[in-house]
UniProtKB/TrEMBL annotation:
This is PDZ domain-containing protein. Residues 28-39 have a biased composition (Polar residues). InterPro entries: PDZ, PDZ_sf, T15H9.4-like. Residues 75-141, 179-249 form the PDZ domain. Residues 1-51, 287-313 are annotated as: Disordered.
């Protein structure tokens, strides 16, 4: 009996030692796997970041720009950059307003080339005036005017004809961090018209109100759903889309476009106003604050009061047939605007303005 007990004790100690060895092997294996994961993560984080729009973005869609800016005082070079050095926003009070735009790929200033976002921020922060700074950046192409019938036929989908009274151009939508598409379209008679474009959006610099979208990435479009799906898929997969657009030029084409836009038009709720509206309001507030005597407020209620008792409150009754009309202004197409004459003119001019579309680069 005592010998059997000794054997069982020895066997138990051997089993314990084996279990300890297995547990140490498991813990060492887990530590090795964790160390391998951390080293892999460190290697991935140490990989160089692709600046700009990446190697897969077409180089012919990036226009190299060089702007020389002269700052008399200390410049306020405030802007927001993505990790890949793409400008996402420029404040209105910044000295860079009018020089850089959202979507620009800032490559450097003067003879210095930026290597990272931190490098760009530190360089711009240490720039002092008065000084002359040369900004180097690349701007995505927005519109390319098609001038000859051969160029137009090359990009038109099969079966589409060249319509008289229209100009044709290639429009490019390029997305970047924080960008908003801002494109509102409507379908009328199997054609897709641009109804409005959002302020400070990607579409504001590319499209005009009344443009007809013919195709997106060589796919013919005839409905709003196809346009939305094509733009969404293209921006997700390759960060840019190409649209063939017909722009009205003649009087008949403009009238046709206006009739299409007026059909069942609905006002958007709380649309974003243009940038100049805020500046106009600030000027009026400053002017009113500078005036010594403010005019006395006028009562909007007309007629004699119903009672002489001043303790009673005066109320305004709103008619049930009244409708709320939002104060808004779409990004206008300059071709559609009319000349407004003076008050003393007996007859308003019938001719449209002579303002033309921007001079877009012409196709090859």
């Amino acid at each position: 009996m005592p010998e059997d007990r000794k054997k069982t004790r020895k066997e138990a100690t051997v089993e314990r030692e084996q279990l300890q060895e297995e547990t140490t092997q498991l813990t060492s294996g887990a530590q090795d796997s964790e160390n391998n994961k951390t080293t892999e993560l460190q290697e991935e984080s140490s990989l160089p970041l692709s600046l700009g729009y990446g190697p897969d973005f077409p180089k012919q869609l990036l226009l190299t720009k060089r702007i020389k800016a002269i700052f008399e005082g200390t410049p306020k070079l405030t802007l927001k950059l993505s990790k890949s050095l793409i400008v996402t926003s420029v404040s209105e009070d910044s000295s860079l307003s009018g020089i850089l735009e959202p979507g620009d790929f800032l490559t450097g200033i003067d003879n210095m080339k930026f290597e990272s976002r931190r490098h760009a921020y530190s360089t711009l922060k240490t720039t002092k005036g008065p000084s002359t700074v040369v900004f180097h950046f690349k701007r995505p192409m927005r519109c390319l005017l098609l001038t000859t019938p051969a160029q137009i036929s090359k990009y038109l989908p099969q079966g589409a004809e060249i319509m008289p009274g229209y100009s044709y151009c290639l429009c490019f939508l390029v997305t970047f961090p924080g960008a908003v598409i801002g494109l509102h379209v409507k379908s009328y008679e199997s054609k897709v018209y641009i109804e409005s474009v959002g302020v400070q959006s990607m579409a504001e610099k590319v499209f005009c109100v009344g443009d007809t979208i013919i195709s997106i990435d060589d796919v013919p479009v005839a409905s709003v759903s196809i346009v939305n799906q094509s733009i969404s898929n293209g921006l997700k997969t390759k960060k840019w889309v190409q649209a063939v657009v017909a722009r009205p030029e003649s009087e008949a084409a403009l009238c046709r476009m206006l009739n299409a836009l007026k059909v069942a038009k609905t006002e958007r709720i709380d649309p974003r106003m243009s940038e100049d509206i805020k500046a106009i309001a600030d000027q009026e507030i400053e002017r009113m604050n500078q005036e010594d005597s403010q005019p006395e407020p006028r009562n909007i209620l007309k007629g004699e009061p119903a009672t002489d008792d001043e303790s009673e409150y005066k109320r305004v009754t709103v008619s049930k047939l009244s409708t709320q009309s939002p104060i808004c202004c779409d990004s206008a197409n300059l071709k559609v605007l009319h000349l407004i004459g003076k008050k003393n003119m007996k007859q308003m001019p019938k001719m449209r303005t002579a303002i033309q579309y921007p001079n877009y680069p012409k196709g090859p």
